[in-house]
Amino acid sequence: MPSLLSSTLAQTSRSQHCLLLQSSTAQSCLPVLRALVKQASERTRETTVLFCFLYPPSSFLDSLRTQAHHIRIVNRTANVPGYEDAFETQKDWIAALKSEILETVRSAPQGPLNVVIDSADTLLSDIGSLAETTHLLSEVFGVVHSRGGSSRLIIHALAPCPLIPILTQTRFSSSLTHITAHPPALLTHLSSAYLTPPPPLSPPEKFWGVFIPISERHYESEKLVFGQNGEGSGPQEFVVEVLVRGGADGSGKRRGIERVLEGWSSAVGGPCDLRDLESLRTLWAKKLVYETQAAVDPTQNLSFNLNLTPEQQRSRAQVPLPYAHEGKPAETTRTPAAILYDPDSADDLDDDDPDEDLDI
């Protein structure tokens, strides 16, 4: 069964028109975005529009693909509000930016359309208004959604960004694929400090209950990566959290929310299982050691035998148990509670009054 991340890259579900990639200071999601742009550019029957606000086009495509007729690139990395003489006010500059984005998307050839925006937080910084940026992205998504088929709006954002809670709401899109990059040190920390390794090493309910609130506190990951004992992060390998909401799977059946953890490794060349990440090998090694120790028979290598032969087990089963009232029929009716006492030979029982010699 293909992983969710592999299915997302291959665009197997035509109902997922909105794709949000979330990076952080601790871990970048750029390799996943690069793979998405590369695969979209290879589908020559689809038009791909790439808006670069943070990274240059060379970070996603080589010089040959940038010249393809089905790829349009809008490079805004060198455009800074307030530093262009062609506009008298910043308001005019923002209006021109919004007009350029909408006109480029609307003028794309008919057919499936992929719009990639890198990144939404830089776009928000340029426009300077959360409401205007949200409205602009809604208009772009409306054009993409109207094309149908395998059309997608791919948005890259650097958390914490105020646009992310808005883009993940069902008001913006009923179906959503949300990909978040996490450093492997986060899973190692949860395993050692909270005794909660990733599934299947621990129950999913327990793991997600611990993982989600800690991962949303970005300073925790930054401290693990860039702290005193941190090892840093990079694009070589990292953990990918994939959340799919709504839409249909390959069989056409509707589904709710699905959330999984997968790996990304440059050595593998893309998505992989968490077991394949070198930085997480210690987690699976601990499991193997535990299973090996649990499988060892504690009665082995002893100087005496603790096991019973079948004949000894049958003989033990035939030994009568020394019940005090054995043989009496069990009473089916409810009787008052009573204390049954068998007197011992040393007991001194006398029915006479022990205080009869006292003159009271």
Automatic annotation (TrEMBL):
<comment type="similarity">
    <text>Belongs to the ELP5 family.</text>
</comment>
<comment type="pathway">
    <text>tRNA modification; 5-methoxycarbonylmethyl-2-thiouridine-tRNA biosynthesis.</text>
</comment>
<keyword id="KW-0819">tRNA processing</keyword>
<dbReference type="GO" id="GO:0000049">
    <property type="term" value="F:tRNA binding"/>
</dbReference>
<protein>
    <recommendedName>
        <fullName>Elongator complex protein 5</fullName>
    </recommendedName>
</protein>
<feature type="compositionally biased region" description="Acidic residues">
    <location>
        <begin position="344"/>
        <end position="360"/>
    </location>
</feature>
<dbReference type="InterPro" id="IPR019519">
    <property type="entry name" value="Elp5"/>
</dbReference>
<keyword id="KW-0539">Nucleus</keyword>
<feature type="region of interest" description="Disordered">
    <location>
        <begin position="324"/>
        <end position="360"/>
    </location>
</feature>
<keyword id="KW-0963">Cytoplasm</keyword>
<dbReference type="Pfam" id="PF10483">
    <property type="entry name" value="Elong_Iki1"/>
</dbReference>
<dbReference type="GO" id="GO:0002098">
    <property type="term" value="P:tRNA wobble uridine modification"/>
</dbReference>
<dbReference type="GO" id="GO:0005634">
    <property type="term" value="C:nucleus"/>
</dbReference>
<dbReference type="GO" id="GO:0033588">
    <property type="term" value="C:elongator holoenzyme complex"/>
</dbReference>
<dbReference type="GO" id="GO:0005829">
    <property type="term" value="C:cytosol"/>
</dbReference>
